[in-house]
Amino acid sequence: MNAIVIPRPALAALLLAHCAGMLDLVVLPVWIGTLVGHYGLPPQGAGQLVTLFLLAMVLVSVTVAARFDRLPRRALAVLGFGSAALIFAAAALCSTYQTLLILHLLAGLGVGCGLSMTHGAMGHSIRPHRTFACAGLALSVAAILLLAGLPLLIERHGGQLLFQALAGIMAVTALALLLTYPALGPVVRESRVATNLRLGRKVWLVIAGICLMTINNAMVFGYLDVIGRARGFDNGQINGVLMALGLVNLVVVVPLALYLERRVIAERAILFGPPVQTLLAALITNASNYLPWAVAGALYTGAQIATHTFVFALLARLDPSRRAVAATPAMLMTGAACGPVVGGLLGERFGFGALGLATALLGGLALLAFLLARAQPLPITGNPAPQQS
Question: Domain 201-375 belongs to what topology?
Answer without folding.
Answer: Growth Hormone; Chain: A; (1.20.1250)
